[in-house]
Structures are given as C-alpha cells and as structure tokens.
Specification:
heterotrimer; A mainly alpha (334); B alpha/beta (393); C mainly alpha (293); B: 393 residues; alpha/beta; Rossmann fold; eight-stranded mixed β-sheet; 13 helices; 14 strands; globular; disordered N terminus; C: mainly alpha; two-stranded antiparallel sheet; 3% strand
C-alpha cells in the first residue's frame, strides 16, 4: 500500500507541474488558487489529523499572513521575497504561539471554541480598527520579487512558485511526521493520557505543532495576498476556518494527501455545481448540489475521499471496510 | 454492478467532467455576440438585490430587441456570494475563462473593490449597478469603470441638508460599523454641520449584529432632536420595528438613507409609516418615463421594481449608449468611455449625468412612507455630485 | 448613565439573555445530552422563523386561527421534522466522530438554505405578533417597552424551568441522562435507546424551531439569519458547560450583559467582547461553568 500512496503523490505533483502547458490562463489561475488552499489545508491537517487538535481559528493565521503581506509592502517599489515571506510567516507563527499557549489549557470542544474566540479577536482587530485599513479591504501595491530571477506579478512565475511551496510544505510535513517529533504527535493523537503516563511532556510538542501549523497557514495567506492583490477582513472569518476544516475532513483525516485531495475536491465540486454549461439556470442554486454531495460523502465514505481506493479494494476482495480501517493503516500515517 | 465499482466509475466520470467543466467556457463559440458578465449575489442575504438588478438589466436589453450597439447580448452569470475573498477568482472566471466584454457587478462593496482592481488591471469595462463604496469612484476610479447607482456619501449628504433645513440642531447617528455605514454618516455629518447642526453622538454596532435595544436606550437618554440612520435588509426591518416599539418614533423623528425603507416596507408594516428617507428613487415619481418602466417591469416579472432594478436598468442603458457610440466595437475603449461620460441617461429615476469620476450626478428625493410606498415629498438635493475625493482622473 | 437608564439597560440585557437561552437550549439538548455536533441548529431556527411567516396565512384561512394556532401547527411540524431527520440522517452519526458530524451538518446547512430560497424566495419578511401582545408599556419619559418582548422572556423562563424539571425530576430525564453517559448499559437494561434518542433529538429540533417562531416578530425573517445565530449559540453552550441547562442559562445571561453594556460602554470593542468573555471563562474553568446535568 505504501508504494501506491507514494506513486499517487508523485503523479499528482507531475500533473500539477505540466498543467500550465495544457490549460489556458484561467485554468492556471484556478489551480494556483487551489494549491494555495491546499497549503492552507495541509497546515490544518498537521493539527487536526496528525495531532488530534481541532482548531477552528486557522483562518486567523492565514489572514494575518495575508494582511502582513499587504501592510509590510512598501508604497514605492517591489519588496524582496527574501525578507517579506519569512516576515509574514513569522508573524502568523507568533500569533499561533500566543493562541496555542493560552488555548492548550483546554480540551475537546472547549479547545475548538477557544481557538475560534482568538480568531474572532483577530477578525475584529482587522475589521474595526484602523490597522486593517477598512472593512472593504486594502490593495497590495506591488508584488514581491526575488531580485531579477522571479517576479511574482507574472502568473506563470506565481504558479511555479506556489507549486514549489506546496511541494516543499508536503515534503517538510512528511519528514516531520516520520521523525521522532511526528511519532510523538501521533502518540498524543491516539492517547495523550498514556503518553503523559510514560513521563512524556506533551505540552511543548502540541505547542510546537501549533506554531508550525500557524506558520504554514501564514505562508498560504502570503501567497493568497500576492495572487489576489487584495485582502479583506473576511479572510479571517470563521466561515473560512470552517471551509478549510470541511476540506480536510472531506479529503480524509490522518493523511497528508487527504488535505490535497480535499482542497481539490471541494474547489472542483463548487466549480461543477456553479457551471452554467451543465446546469443552466439552476446553477444559481449550486449550494444544494454541493450540500447533497457532502452529505453523500459522509454517508458513503466514512474515511473521506482518500479512503476510496481502500474501500473499493475491500469490496472487491470481499473484506469488510469499516469506518476506522485497520490498525496497521492508522499506524502507517501518510 | 457492485456498489464499489459503481463508486469507482462514477468517481472517474465525475473527475473527467470536472476537468472538462473547468476549462469549458459557459457558452459555445459562434457569432460575435456581446458577452455581458453578470457578477451578482444569487445566494445569501443579498440574493433579492442581485435578482432585481439582473431583472432591470435584462428588461432594458429586451426593450432594445435583445441587441446593444447592433450586437446580440449574451449573458454569463457568476454568483459572487457577497464574499470579497472569492471575488477576484470569480471576476477572473468571467474575464479569463468566459472572455466577457463587459463586467456588471456587484452589490457588496468589498466584492466591487476586487472587481475594480481586476477591471483596472485588464482594462475590461466595468459598470457597478449598486455597491456604494466611495473608493470605487474615488481612489480606484478609472476610465473604464462606471457606476449607475450612487456613492454611500450621497444619500447621507442629501439627508443632512434636509434635516438642517427642518431646524433640528442636535442629532444622534446610528449605523453598523463598516464602510457603508461610516461613509453614509460622514456624508450626513458634512452637510448637517454645514447647515448649523451638531452630531452629538455617533453610535455604531458591529456588523451584522441586530440587537438594537441597548443603543435605542442610549438614544432615549441623549434626548436628541432627531436621529439619522443607515441600515439595509433584515437589519433595516428590525431597526424600524424596534424603534417604533421603543416608543421613540413618536418622540424623536427618524431620518435615514433610503435603503432603510426600500424592499422592506412589506415586512415593516405600520411601523414604517411616516418615515422620511432620502434616495435617488421613489415609488411615486409619476413621470411618464418612470410609469412606463414600472409598467413594463411589473408585466414582465410580476413584481414591483425597486431602486436596485432601476440601477440595473440604467447600467444597461449606459452600456447601450457606449455600444452605440462605438458601433458595437467594444475594443474602442476610449471612445466608449468618452461617449458614456458625456451622456445624459434617461433613467426612470429622472435624467442624470456622470461626474468626472463616473458616478451619477443625480437628484436625491425626500420620500415619506405611506400606503406601503415611498412617496415623493420633494427634491432633497438637486443634481448632487459625489466629491470623488482621491480620484485622479 | 443615570439610574433609570441603567435599569433599562439591565432589562435589555436580561431579555436578550433569555432569548439567547431559548435559541441555544435546543443545541444544549442535542449537543450536551446526545453528544452530536449539529451545525444545522441555526437552520432550524431559520425554519422556525420562516414557518411563522409562511404558515400564518395558511392557518388563518383553514382554521381561522391566529398567532397561537400557527405556533401549535408549527410545533407539530417541527417535532415531525426532527423525528424524520433523526431517523434519516442523524441516527447514522452517533457512532461517527465529531468531525464527521460537522461535515454532514455543514452539508445540511447548505441544503436547507437553498431549499428555503427555492420554496420561499429571498425577500425579507416581517411577522406580526398577536394584537393583545402588540402593546407597549411606558418606561421613563421617552421610551416604551414592547409587551411582546416581556412575553418572550416569560416563555423562555417557563421553558428553562420545564427543561430542568424534566431532566432532574422525571423518569424520562433520568433515562436520557443515563443514555448520554453510557449507551450500551442503558440498552442492556432493556430501555429502547434508539427511540429515546429519537425523542430527544426531535425535542431539540422542536425547541430550535419554536425559538425561531417565537422570536420572528422581533427578529424579522431574512436569508442568512441562521448563520449569525449559530456561532453565538455554540458560545452559550460552551461557556455554560456542555450538557448543563443551568450553565446555558447563566451563560446566556452573562452574554446578554456583556453585549448590552459593551455596546454602550466600549463600542469600539463590542464585537469582540463576547469572545473575550468566552476565552477568559475557559481559561479559568476549562470545562465551562457547570458540569453536565
């Protein structure tokens, strides 16, 4: 099974790499956007799927990364990628440090709501104070460059850079989860009591996961701001936090490629139901199709979309495909 | 067929369809039709407004025989969900995938801001049929961006003149804490204070909070001569009802930007009777132009038109004027802009022209609610132009 | 702020808090007692409000009844809806984890909103309270207080007492509480847990719909009204302690006070005060104010 997962990921990245050659401008833009959300989803997957911490305030880190990009960009020239990118990631990670340090005192649903509370606080700072530049949003004056090598204002350059970031984040998280640190996170997810009983101090690991996750979300926010050239307070709203959570649940928790699949599936499902070419006048009621699809997914695919091959294989060979999968599957967490 | 195989096959089919759909534009290629991209809210709180704007737009095009500037009009629609974070992608869908010639949208100001940026970057002609953000005809103004509606400042300014003339001296304002509310109050304050009044308190509550009781009590405690407010939609209905229920309607006159009572009178019932509002449209203008429009609209859609329908209708008129001037060749952008800039648009609201920043210079009417209608009382402000602060055109 | 104004603001805070409790109590029931996260709770509230608007003319023409008749009809429909929904959807979710419930109920929200758009349209509507409740009582020189709001607060109190009574003093309440702590044990004692859960779920939905109907004359009826109410309901339930009705009531009243006085004393921050309150309470008491029960 492991080699098929590896092949799938490699194949997916290959397709993404050659996509600009096949698709028009719009196709390139669309996939670039989905890749940004895939990075965002991966950041949440680290917390929810790998560590078992359900954060409902992820949009705060995303939005802080986006707003930092706009606010730190000088009015006159194009800023250098070398300092702007790390600065935005760092600011998002800093907020994650604060939120994590305070929230990790709580557990379960209370933890979920506390992370929401902190995200709402960030939202109101941006929405209601002069810092955010107004409720209608602010524009990015110029897009960052890497000397003369890379100008993110060019769509092809931006696509390539985003793909590189996505691949980099994916590889980084894969290595992280295979390391001792990742094993500790898995242990915390499965049974935190047991970990603590063996003398393991779980708090620093959870906090570290939180900070890394916040930083990656900040990276996604940076890319989003560069892509759109426009940020607004809704980037920190709980609706966005909810959407990215939906993406990773849809894709399948506990697997990095689940976040990828979920981001793509969610975006493409929306495109499908909004398409006038298929639905004509009814396309304006696309929420209905999307909602029904999501319900169908939950009912038929208890392990998310990432579990489809597993379920198919199980049915074909006559084995029962339960809601949780085998223990071996769980342990080989990819 | 076993369920798993079904799932596999349907997934494969779905994947293929999805990828096809993504690249497939909304309509097939063929004759050189004029592609009009409508980016409006078709779901969510503002859906009714989006529908009204589209209805008004289509009505004018139908009246012209389905053609503008000699070219048949083809519509491409995108639901903007009133979500500014998706706006850039939605506009790009229209501009890059569907290759529309003209953009029409939107209702929500944040969405319009995103559209304005893309319009500026790509040079596509954009006509805004509602969003009142001052910035669209302010710092973001451009030769290819037009507005057929209003700027948030305008109705507030018009009302301020009226309230000052009525002799009120101390006023409390109340609105949501967001750009539209702030800009409306600013407009009111400017003319009201010029007219010798003072705004003693500016109350606001976070958007979209609709618990007004605490602030209504504050208003009663402040005992002003009058209250100016800006609310729209569900909030407007609740505010008017709460204001009346709190007994304030009898003691402290309420003045508002017209959106308080537009599209909401059925819901507000008797609580709205007698309210004065200022807007660039009224239900009882009784001009031949407006009567013809209202009749045609009611016959086609079995609904009464509102200000949003008029704005959509006039956006189509503006497009038509431009298209006629360039004889259908929309690539002649500067001629298009020049023609629309100089035009006098024969609108159901009364004829209006465009300011240098492409915002309507129009009459604002003082209306009073009666018989479930916003009845025209007088002209609050004649040919009011938005100051277009920050526009460098 | 003078004393009369202060008193009136306290009344405002109390009334808002009680209304919040009414809306959130259904969520406490389903979430607290049954452990099911139901994001569609706001949608049920919206369904209630739209029912109050849409059923009124129908009830008026068929039975000749007014507001209360509409309430009764609406309540019956709500219980039926809850029962059917539990049987068709939610019964599959008890074994699934919370996040799957989140996903499924998120899909439900989308479906309900769109059905509403298809069936009733997108306009804003108002609902008239019955005539004998439409009056106002004078408060100070300028203000009056609508009698209907007092009626609403009364209904909330009665509901709170009823819920408390049923849970702590009746056999049904005992079975429900037992079922929430140990499902298998209750089943092995011969109690039909499936039927029990269906009843509780139907009750939770019915309360949410009822809250929407009762609040409709005050809140008015518009698209998207469910979303704004959803988050604040979760805040109430969490501050109060999941599963605690006492807690939900206290939390609702607290939020009422913070929201009301926050708007007046700290208007720049009033949007965030409720969340600051929740963060502070959870940092002090990580499991909410009260334990379940």
């Amino acid at each position: 099974m492991k080699s098929s997962k590896f092949l799938f990921v490699v194949a997916a990245f290959l397709v993404l790499a050659v996509w600009p050659l096949m698709a028009g401008q719009y196709g390139v833009d669309l996939v670039a956007k989905i890749m940004v959300f895939a990075i965002f989803a991966l950041s949440l997957e680290l917390l929810v799927g790998s560590t078992g911490l359900v954060c409902f305030g992820q949009a705060a880190f995303f939005g802080i990364g986006a707003y930092a990009t706009v606010l730190l960009t000088p009015q006159d020239g194009a800023p250098s990628l070398l300092w702007l990118l790390p600065a935005c990631v760092l600011l998002a990670a800093l907020y994650a440090l604060v939120v994590g340090a305070l929230s990790l005192r709580t557990k379960g649903v209370y933890f979920i709501m506390v992370t929401l509370a902190f995200a709402q606080m960030a939202y109101y700072v941006v929405h209601d104070t002069p810092l955010g530049g107004g409720t209608d949003g602010i524009y990015l004056t110029s897009k960052p460059v890497l000397g003369t090598l890379l100008d993110l204002d060019k769509p092809q350059a931006f696509y390539g850079f985003t793909l590189a970031c996505l691949a980099g984040v994916f590889v980084f998280l894969t290595l992280l989860l295979r390391s001792r640190f990742g094993r500790a996170l898995a242990g915390i997810r499965v049974n935190e009591q047991r970990m603590r009983a063996t003398g393991f101090s779980t708090y620093p690991y959870k906090l570290a996961a939180f900070v890394i996750s916040g930083g990656i979300a900040g990276l996604a926010g940076f890319l989003f701001a560069v892509k759109d050239g426009f940020v607004n307070p809704e980037l920190i709203s709980w609706h966005l936090s909810g959407e990215v959570l939906i993406m990773i649940i849809l894709g399948g928790l506990g697997h990095l490629r689940g976040a990828l699949i979920g981001a793509f599936a969610f975006a493409l499902l929306q495109e499908f139901f909004k398409s006038e070419a298929i639905f004509g006048e009814f396309a304006k009621h696309w929420h209905l199709g999307l909602g029904l699809s999501i319900i169908a997914c939950v009912a038929l695919l208890p392990r998310g979309l990432v579990g489809v091959p597993g379920q198919v294989a199980a049915r074909l060979s006559g084995r029962p495909s339960g809601a949780r999968g085998t223990a071996a599957e769980e342990a080989s967490n990819e | 067929m076993s369920p798993s195989r079904r799932t596999l096959i349907s997934t494969a089919v779905a994947a293929l369809t999805l990828s096809a759909v993504v690249i497939l534009p909304a309509q097939a290629q063929g004759l050189p039709k004029l592609k009009v991209g409508l980016m409006l809210p078709y779901t969510g709180t503002y859906a009714a407004l989006g529908n009204a704007i589209e209805n008004g737009f289509r009505l004018h095009v139908t009246e012209q025989g389905g053609k503008l500037g000699g070219r048949e009009v083809e519509y491409v629609k995108v639901d903007d969900e009133s979500d500014p974070s998706k706006a850039t992608d939605n506009v790009n869908k229209l501009v890059k995938r569907d290759n529309v010639d003209v953009l029409i949208g939107s209702v929500h100001s944040g969405v319009a801001m995103a559209m304005a940026k893309v319009a500026r970057d790509t040079g596509t002609i954009l006509i805004v049929p509602n969003a009142g953000a001052d910035a669209v005809t302010g710092p973001m103004c451009a030769p290819n961006i037009f507005r057929s509606s209003f700027s948030n400042w305008q109705p507030g300014y018009a009302m301020g003149e009226v309230v000052a003339k009525k002799g009120h001296k101390k006023v409390v304002t109340i609105t949501w804490k967001y750009a539209a509310g702030d800009e409306s109050v600013k407009g009111f304050k400017e003319s009201f204070e010029k007219g010798g009044g003072t705004v003693v308190k500016e109350l606001s509550l976070p958007f979209p909070n609709v618990e007004f009781q605490a602030l209504l009590t504050e208003i009663a405690a402040a005992k002003p001569d009058a209250v100016y407010t800006f609310f729209a939609g569900g909030g407007a209905v609740k505010f008017v009802k709460d204001y009346a229920a709190a007994g304030l309607k009898k003691s402290i006159p309420l003045y508002a930007s017209g959106f308080l009572t537009d599209g909401t009178l059925d819901a507000q019932g008797a609580d709205a009777n007698g309210l004065f509002t200022a807007l660039h449209y009224a239900d009882s203008l009784n001009t031949p132009r407006d009567n013809a429009f209202r009749l045609a609209y009611a016959k086609t859609y079995k609904l009464q038109p509102d200000v949003y329908a008029v704005q959509g209708y006039d956006a189509a008129q503006m497009l038509g004027i431009g298209m006629a001037a360039v004889k259908g060749d929309i690539s002649k952008k500067s001629e298009f802009s020049a023609a629309v800039e100089k035009a006098k648009i024969d609108s159901p609201r009364g004829a209006f022209t465009l300011s240098k920043s492409h915002n309507p210079v129009q009459d604002f009417y003082l209306r009073q609610v009666g018989d479930k209608e916003n009845k025209l009382v007088s002209i609050a402000s004649k040919a009011l132009a938005d100051p277009a602060r920050g526009c460098k055109m | 702020m003078d004393f009369t104004t202060f008193l009136i603001q306290c009344l405002n805070a109390l009334q808002y808090g009680l209304l919040l409790f009414l809306v959130a109590s259904g969520l406490t029931l389903i979430f607290g007692i049954m452990g099911v996260i139901n994001l569609a709770h706001g949608s049920f509230y919206m369904i209630g409000a739209y029912m109050a608007y849409a059923l009124a003319p129908i009830v008026g023409s068929t039975f000749g009844g007014g507001f209360f008749a509409t309430l009764v009809v609406g309540l019956v429909l709500a219980v039926l809806l809850g029962y059917v929904l539990e049987w068709a959807f939610f019964s599959f979710l008890y074994e699934r984890d919370h996040l799957q419930q989140v996903l499924m109920t998120y899909g439900l929200i989308l479906v309900f909103e769109e059905l509403r758009s298809l069936l009733v349209g997108d306009d804003v509507h108002g609902v008239q309270p019955p005539d004998f409740l439409s009056g106002t009582l004078p408060l100070g020189e300028l203000m009056t207080y609508p009698v209907y709001r007092l009626f609403m607060s009364g209904v909330c109190l009665v509901l709170a007492l009823a819920m408390y009574f049923v849970f702590t003093r009746t056999r049904l309440g005992m079975m429900i509480r037992a079922g929430s702590t140990n499902r298998e044990m209750v089943q092995s004692l011969g109690i039909d847990i499936k039927f029990l859960y269906r009843v509780v779920f139907a009750a939770g939905v019915a309360i949410a719909v009822f809250a929407g109907m009762i609040a409709a004359p005050v809140s008015s009826v518009y698209p998207g009204m469910g979303n704004t109410v959803l988050i604040i309901c979760f805040v109430v339930v969490v501050i109060g302690g999941i599963g605690s009705i006492r807690g939900a009531l206290l939390a609702a009243l607290l939020i009422g006070v913070v929201d009301t006085f926050g708007k007046v004393l700290l208007p720049q921050a009033s949007g965030v005060l409720v969340y600051v309150l929740m963060a502070l309470i959870l940092l002090w008491k990580p499991d909410g104010l009260f334990k379940a029960g």
